[in-house]
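Hi F.,

I've been meaning to write this up properly since the lab meeting, where we talked about keeping a consistent format for the predictions we share between groups. The idea is simple: the sequence comes first, exactly as it goes in, then the structure tokens exactly as they come out, then a line or two of notes. No screenshots and no reformatting. I'm using this chain as the first example so we have something concrete to point to.
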Amino acid sequence: MKSSICLISMFLMFAASASASVSVSSPSNGATVGSPVTYAATASTSTCSKGVASMGIYVDNQLLKVVNGTTVNTSLAVGSGTHNTVVEEWDYCGGATYASMTINVSAQTGVFVSSPTPSSQVGSPVSYVASATTATCSKGVASMGVYVDNQLTTVVSGASMNTKVPIGSGTHNTVVEAWDYCGGAAYTPVQVTVQGGHVISNIQASSGWKSWGELAPSYNICSWPCSGVSWSMTQNIGSPSLTGKATEFYLGGTTPYADVLYSIPLLGQGSTQGLPDTNHTLLPTIHNFTYDAYFLPTNLAATQVLEFDVSMYFNGLSLIWGQQCRVLGGYTWDIWDNINATWISTGIPCHPVNNAWNHVTIQMQRESDNWLLFQSVTLNGVTTPVNRYYQASTAPSSWWGVTVNYQMDGNSKQTGYSTYLDGFSLTYW
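Output, unedited:
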């Protein structure tokens, strides 16, 4: 991969972590669900060069389902009561690994919310874990959503959700709702009190975005027009969209492995949110960030990398929490080493779904000694701890601000492709 965030020339490939894993996004451990139970999981292995052959689902030690490949997304009829379930993968070399969970299957229908609990005090982003069933529609539950103070903020497909929603501090009336394929709906209200945190919402629809091209092999930035790479950004897209205000980002051109960097200043210098922090009293108080967005890739076969960054500059320091989903380079999350200006593989799988809305939530922290902590990454309801620390690098002492970036990298043929962003927010405190 290359360092687009620091604009330094490099192209590194990382080997996958020597391990195998099963990531289950539904159902969550301890969840109360209805029948049929939705199982969604992915598997990966780097111990077998031939890859994952198949996956299976056990309920109370009985194998109920087997599918070929690295993903499973199916619904199984399970009787009411408490059950021990296992999702297992088998590779082509004879190896296997699994993930286990306990679930409670309810005989009733409706929306079951296991997190957050009503009237609870929580931090932002708020973790919502829920499932739904219907007795009136034979086709089942189509999707679920979260309303915050009467505003629909999150939508997921299927009859279960395990997602994080950035919510500002204070007491909020939230509702988890399910819609079935027959036009019916059901909901469960959950009031929560959020402690701390400021949320900047719908960033994808904000004015003030800037963009640059980057050309191999040096990857120096160039402003439009930039020979060899082309790009565009179209805001307020109604379809595909979750909020009616999606943004389409396009990358094309003729130079292989060319990139486009989209960036918007949120706090400090050039703030697009009316928060210039001219007295330098805001930025030194901020220690936590949550990058939360929905993205829809239209051609993963052409997508080299998708990058999601938060950058903070103050007191002569540069803190860049760079996270990239290395798609064609191995379907793995990488993070940015500020001091050595290089990407580091986490070994965490990154398998976005093509032509569908994917939900990414990334949590990061500035320590008291100004080291960067990469805390966790959540993709489509699966949260994986990162827990890695890196030092800050230097920046001009006059540079004060917080920006967020979204970047698209081209492949070896520089095949043109688009991605869409929606529901993009940054929570800081």
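Notes:
The chain has a mean pLDDT of 89.
The chain has no helices and 33 strands.

If this format works for you, I'll send the rest the same way.

G.
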